[in-house]
Amino acid sequence: MTTYVVSREVLASNIRQLKTQAGAVPIWAVVKGDGYGLGVLPLAETLSEEGITHFCVTDVKEAEILRDNSFTEEKILMLRSVCDRREINRLLDLKVILTVGSEETARLVDQIAAERADVAEVHLKIDTGMGRYGFLPEQTDRVISLYAERKHLAISGIYTHFNCAFNNEALTRQEFAAFMGVVEAIRAAGQETGTVHCCNSAAFLKYPEMHCDGVRLGSALLGRMPFRTKLHPVGYAVTNIDEIRTLPKGHTTGYSALWKAKKDTRVAILPVGWYHGFRVSCQPELARKRDCLRAALSAVKQLLRRKRATVLIGGRQCPVVGAVGMLHCAADVSGVDCKCGDPVTVQISPLHVKGMPVVFRA
Prior knowledge:
- This protein is an alpha/beta fold.
- It is 31% helix and 23% strand.
């Protein structure tokens, strides 16, 4: 059986390191996507043990899991601007902070809160470039009007989400300036913004001057960033060798016959593939010419460096040969002392973990 093994100590170490960098600024831990593959509850429990009391979700079910498992006093922020009446009512039942990113959402949340004789705590979302939820900076007057017009909204925060913090400093600083312009305009109008937050994991690590009143961290917790950090990956897959065979010279393995044996080669067949998150990553958008050129250059660099996927068998890094399939791959184990059933350690992407149980270990 292929299992995703998560080191609770590595996870805790990452959290402690991030807390040190954050200083007095609260961390809002993002537990979306089933806790980035770790499970909402196991991830939240480890975060709680390390003193984290603020959480972000993107689905009602995630909030229900937290509230149903003793996370009764912690702050939970819904990162979507919800417009479904049932979802809004359920989130209010759960005492979740709602995101308001449009006049329509503000009107609906205000109306539902009034019907309940309640007040909905909300954070305002400003769209500085992501283009998914939020008021545009040029709609600041409409944002300010919410304070007076919507009597059943308690605005306790305001935030934005950077779209290129990991690779575009100029654009990130431009977005930050636009966001802070909205914040300053609200304050100049005599209103309170509450908690101001804009940093995701990449921005948190790259731009400490943008930490404001809170930071939202998700992928950094797992130690999986697209640039070098002192954080460590929290997990890996463990599987077993299904079969060992010797492929004769000239024989191929895997779809498209991408690899051909230059000599008789001993290979191990492993029940792990891209379905489990092996050799899978978030693919870049290639709509622009410069993105295509960047991707091509990266591919050429990897080819020149001959950077190949490997798996750990018998204490040795063994190169993967041929294309990685959905559920299987092959590794060259020539000269490696191994047999069928032996354990294999595989580095996988936790963001794409599927089809395997998650086991936490110390």
